[in-house]
Specification:
The complex is a heterodimer of chains A (234) and B (409). With 234 residues, chain A is α/β, with parallel strands linked by helices. Chain A is built from seven helices and ten strands. The two termini of chain B are 31 Å apart. The chains are: A alpha/beta (234), B alpha+beta (409).
């Protein structure tokens, strides 16, 4: 069943006098529960596509449907609601709230969702345990390594039980071991929970985890291949 | 405590110094406002008490047109009996009947115009502080004796003292010629030269004989124990005198409109200054919250990406401001009430205050008066100003685009 569908997406940025076509007639379908990597060099349009799929950025033209909902028909607050309940984001720079502990970072999203305090606390503990941070619940981001912070970010992304996780270069700031651990975690969540993953990367080792590899260049999809996933060699 | 409140609280302390400076400005402003408003209200109370206690009293019963026209014939029948009824009705002793007439007072050497007041010697000291301002001699004793007490300046002008005789000439209630010879028994020094220049008091009984007043007087003066009891007493008296259409029950505000005007005018100026103070503090909060929002633009972008709506983000900024304002309110209330409470007992003074206060028959020390109004009006205005100041930074969040926000450093 199709989870994401986009048709003829175009997005142009203006930088001084120059016009950059970040997305150039991109059409794409992503099935539920799939593990997709968007690859390509910097400026190829990966992040722009990811942002558009998550409703963070609006394409100049074209249509995006996520979980049966046309994004261009949703208001700002409806888009926020969609992201809150259906989409998890993982960023390259972790982007945790620095004044909250690991548990509080995870709980915060659940509170916004309206989960009750007692339930929130136990759910956050369970999710942090799932990403291997059971002993670090009360640590603030500054007291965690990059890999640990990214795990908290993943815990935060999956705490809202999303059907789709969009990850923008999630391993870019991690060492090889942490990157491998993170990708293993993604694979586990994908296979055990059926969460759809769309990951942008230009790291070939990350691409190896994907069942589908979409290559982009100059805002266009230049290759779209199904492949046999394989784990990263650490 | 929800995570949102926790986050709001911790966000406040990301820049500890900046937060304390803002809270400090609010606390200082609150302390100042509590003190100044208490002082202002306390001074008004002292001015009112001082002025009313001097002569006017809190309430007077007069003939309906006497206040405006001041004719001798506009009198209150049975004034002494009415005063006695009022004493019983209100349960207060400080009720006195008076009668007034303008006359020419002459000593052996000179003559001056005076305002003669016929008073009840037993009750007048209860409604007026003038009898207590004796400089020489004694106050009146007998209600029918041919005695007089006069102001110090008048005594000086007439060159008379206790024991001297003084003649006065005027018109009686019926238009007849009224004259009397009285022995000066006391000299009053109120500290108000205008009053001391023309004041002369004599027993009401004798005054009524001389001025052909019969059993009438011109006013029944009432002093209630506290200013806030005036309203109740006024209603009671109006109900009591409902059938006597020729009489009017007047409160101090009507009797001394100048006093209320002076207070109102002073109050308007003071409120304007307080308003400026509150606005300055609100701008300080605005600056802090705007800085706080601007430097967290990226973080807000991330939160939006995670599913927080602009409204939720604005609520977060609102919560932060609320905590900031509550902190300023609590510390300001504590500091302001302690300081003002101490000064309300100990009092204080500064150079020049004695001269100013003498005009209102007051002592040389100022006593702020703590009340719910003086405690809460200023701090609540600062509180509201702080919350309003957060509107602009909070509203900016509605214009935030997550991608652009996340690109900021």
């Amino acid at each position: 069943m199709t989870d994401i569908s986009c048709r003829n997406l175009c997005k142009t940025f203006h930088q001084g006098d120059a016009t950059i076509r970040a997305l150039d007639d991109v059409s794409l379908d992503i099935e539920e529960g799939s593990f997709v990597c968007l690859s390509g060099p910097s400026g190829s349009g990966k992040t722009t596509l990811l942002n558009a799929l998550g409703g963070l950025d609006t394409p100049d033209s074209g249509e995006i449907t996520v979980g049966g909902q046309r994004l261009d028909l949703l208001s700002k607050s409806e888009l926020a609601q969609l992201r809150l309940n259906r989409i998890g984001f993982v960023f390259q720079a972790y982007n945790l709230v620095p004044v909250l502990s690991a548990r509080e970072n995870v709980e915060f999203i659940m509170q916004v969702q309206g989960v009750r305090a007692r339930e929130r606390r136990s759910l956050a503990a369970a999710v942090l345990a799932e990403v291997g941070l059971e002993d670090m619940e009360e640590r603030r981001p500054a007291q965690l390594s990059g890999g640990q912070q990214q795990r908290v970010a993943v815990a935060r992304a999956i705490a809202s039980k999303p059907a789709l996780v969009l990850a923008d270069e999630p391993t870019a700031n991690l060492d090889s071991r942490s990157a491998a651990q993170l990708m293993d975690l993604f694979v586990t969540l994908n296979t055990e929970r059926g969460v759809t993953f769309v990951i942008s990367t230009h790291d070939p080792r990350v691409m190896g985890y994907a069942g589908r590899l979409i290559s982009m260049r100059d805002g266009r999809i230049v290759a779209d291949e199904r492949q046999q996933p394989h784990a990263m060699a650490v | 405590m929800g995570v949102s409140w926790l986050l709001a609280w911790r966000n406040l302390w990301r820049h500890r110094r900046r937060t304390w400076l803002t809270v400090g400005a609010m606390v200082f402003c609150n302390i100042l406002l509590i003190f100044l408003v208490s002082l202002q209200l306390g001074s008004y109370q002292m001015m009112i008490d001082g002025s009313l206690a001097a002569f006017t009293g809190h309430i007077q019963i007069q003939q309906r047109d006497y206040l405006d026209e001041q004719h001798m014939y506009q009198s209150v029948p049975g004034a002494v009996e009415l005063a006695a009824r009022v004493r019983t009705a209100l349960g207060v002793e400080s009720v006195a009947a008076r009668a007034e007439a303008f006359a020419l007072a002459s000593s052996a050497e000179r003559s001056f115009g005076v305002l003669l007041t016929g008073v009840q010697p037993a009750y007048e000291p209860l409604v007026s502080t003038f009898p207590g301002k004796l400089r020489e001699g004694r106050y009146l004793r007998d209600g029918n004796a041919q005695e007089i007490v006069i102001g110090a300046v008048l005594a000086q002008n007439l060159k008379v003292g206790p024991g001297d005789e003084l003649t006065f000439l005027g018109s009686g209630r019926d238009g007849s010629f009224a004259a009397g010879v009285a022995t000066v028994v006391g000299i009053l020094d109120t500290g108000l030269p205008d009053v001391d220049r023309s004041m002369a008091q004599l027993p009401l009984g004798w005054f009524r004989q001389v001025f052909a007043m019969g059993d009438e007087g011109h006013s029944v003066v009432i002093r209630v124990p506290a200013l806030d009891e005036v309203g109740g007493a006024l209603s009671e008296l109006r109900a009591m005198l409902l059938a006597r259409k020729e009489l009017a029950v007047l409160d101090w505000d009507t009797l001394m409109p100048g006093l209320r005007q002076a207070i109102t005018s002073d109050m308007a100026g003071a409120w304007f200054q307080y308003g400026v103070l509150v606005i300055l503090v609100a701008f300080s909060v605005l600056n802090t919250q705007l800085m706080s929002v601007l430097e967290r633009t990226r973080e807000f972008g991330v939160m939006m990406a995670l599913g927080m709506s602009p409204l939720r983000l604005a609520q977060l900024v609102g919560m932060e401001t609320l905590l900031l304002a509550v902190l300023g309110l609590a510390l300001g209330l504590l500091g302001g009430s302690l300081l003002t409470w101490y000064l309300s007992y100990a009092g204080f003074t500064y150079p020049g205050v004695e001269e100013m206060m003498q005009r209102f028959m007051l002592g040389g020390r100022l006593y702020p008066q703590i009340s719910a109004t003086s405690l809460l009006s200023g701090p609540l205005a600062v509180f509201a100003g702080a919350l309003l100041a957060a509107l602009y930074p909070a509203l900016r969040l509605f214009r935030l685009e997550p991608v652009a926000a996340m690109r900021t450093a």
